Amino acid sequence: MVYLTRQEHFNAAHRLYNPEWSYEKNEEVFGKCANENWHGHNYDLYVTIKGEPDAGTGFVFDVKKLGQLVKEHVTEKLDHRNLNLDVDFMKGKMCSTENLVIGIWNELKIHLPPEVHLHCIRLYETPRIFVEYYGE
Amino acid sequence: MSRKVAVFRREHFNAAHRLYNPKWDDATNEKVFGKCALPNYHGHNYEMVVKVTGKPDKKTGYVIDMKTLSDIIQKEVTSKFDHKNLNLDTKEFKKLNPTAENIVVVIYQLLRPHIDKNFDLQVRLYETPRNFVEYPVK
Q1: Domains of chain A
Q2: Is B43 helix (H, G, I), strand (E, B) or coil?
Q3: pLDDT tens track of chain B, all 138 residues?
Q4: Which residue in B has a C-alpha nearest to residue A30's C-alpha?
């Protein structure tokens, strides 16, 4: 079994704000991340699939195709966007890194060919903060 | 032989912005700035590298105390820009397009009055790990 990872990136604005809470409670929980005019990040995305290398190609999966699928279904929807306002699969959700990685997993999962086994998505919000999701 | 030494302090801030010239129509802005002009903003993890060049003090051995330099950057720059929308939340970019070029010049101007006149100051600003600018140019 080999794990194959493709790295992509996108730059986006967001804010952390729960509309069911008061302004003060949001400030208390999310601090400066609740700023009403947004802030933003350079997100780095690592998509890992797993499988046995094909006897004919030596590939687990054509990594260029994987990159194209990630771009088409994930990064083109997120890059230079506002995660709270512009992204269909984040509508009604809190735009934390945790929820974003789950959203990305779900979006990608339905567009990957059935023979591709998605293993892990790692998402960096900053060079010092990242999350991982294994679909569990 | 010159005894000048350059010292560097790295700091960062995360901010939203968009590139937009209000004197142009939307079509022209989109043509020139592409997706950077999108109306709902996007954002970056900005990294600053602040360079101060001078002769180390005889008593301390320092060009400038790094903690002092960090405090100056924090007060003059980071506290104003971190987790802000550069277009909407900062007075510096109310009428100035927040390109990396303009941001680095603003950062230099904010810091310069607080650094000893005998020292050279230079700022490098990373908008992404692949795009960065420097001011002033030597």
Answers
A1: 2-133 (3.30.479.10)
A2: strand
A3: 679 999 999 999 999 999 999 999 999 999 999 999 999 999 999 999 999 999 999 999 999 999 999 999 999 999 999 999 999 999 999 999 999 999 999 999 999 999 999 999 999 999 999 999 999 997
A4: B83
* Closest in B40, B43, B85 to A85, CB measured: B40
List, as ranges, residues 27-86 from A with C-beta within 8 Å of B. 32-33, 35, 37-42, 79-82, 85-86
Domains of chain B: 5-16+43-135 (3.30.479.10)
Closest residue in B to A81 (Cα–Cα): B42
Q: Catalytic residue at B12?
A: no
Beta bridge pairs of residue A12: A41, A81
Measure CB to CB from residue B38 to each of A33, A38, A80 and give the nearest one: A80
Q: State the Cα–Cα distance between residues A35 and B92, nearest whole angstrom.
A: 18
In terms of CA atoms, which chain A residue is nearest residue B131? Answer: A42
- Residues near B58 by Cβ (< 8 Å), separated by ≥ 6? none
CA distances from A70 to A8, A11, A45, A61, B70 (A): 8, 15, 9, 13, 39
From its phi and psi, is residue B91 left (phi > 0), alpha (psi between -120 and 50) or beta?
alpha
Is the confidence metric ipTM above 0.95 for this complex?
A: no
CB contact under 8 A, A38 and B35: no
Contact (CB<8Å) B17/A12: no
